[in-house]
Prior knowledge:
This protein is an alpha+beta fold. It has one domain (8-238): Phosphatase 2c, domain 1. The protein is 32% helix and 27% strand. It has seven helices and eleven strands. The strands form two sheets. Strands 2, 3, 4, 5, 6 and 9 form a six-stranded antiparallel β-sheet that branches. Strands 1-11-10-7-8 form a five-stranded antiparallel β-sheet. It starts with 7 loop residues before the first strand and ends with a strand.
Amino acid sequence: MTAPQGTRYNAKTHVGLVRKINEDSILAMPEHGIWLVSDGMGGHHGGDFASQTITEAVSMLDPDLAPRDLMNGMRNAVGQAHQQITGEAARIGADTIGATVVSLILTDGHFVSFWAGDSRLYRLRDGMVEMLSTDHSVVAALVMSGQLTWDEAEHHPQSNAITRAVGVGDEIELDKIRGTIEPGDRFLLCSDGLTKYADMATLETILTREPIETVSDALLDVAMRGGAADNVSIIVVDPPK
């Protein structure tokens, strides 16, 4: 399977201005129609190991798989990474090693996303940005109950407390969303190192204004000007119009 012909993307990951190690990992496989962002936690050898384990597992998928088999392959690859990460945590006696994951799979006329944690998938359609994923986090429950907006949740004291991650717990459960692609759609996958600084209005402005060649740089600049206290990972994907 390949992505729809004419799909374009721009990807960037940056350590930020405070952290010494980039625990994020990104994966772009246009020949598969797959893009992925993973945000590790657990410090050196922990977070970077976890996120890289996920991207490496997914990168082994056969590019010739049919769409249904590719979706099953994505689930299985993340499940295998989960077992590797929990095994490594046990080996070194670490309390918590894990990583978020958000993926995008494009087929002709359709998209599918799997995710766990608080890395996000957004879609720009007709000049409006919509958050397609839902965080697995403490503050997400407050948003879903109407007590906070997503923008307000970024400034909550427990904004970093996630409730699901690959490598944490006995099994990993991935959420899924699928839908049709319309002409002009643009997708953004990112770690929370971006969304802590870029609210919905900012995302909407930049995703609408910037061409594919410069859009990731423009988004990264928002995080850097905000202080970039975390690693920042960004992938923007433009299906053919």
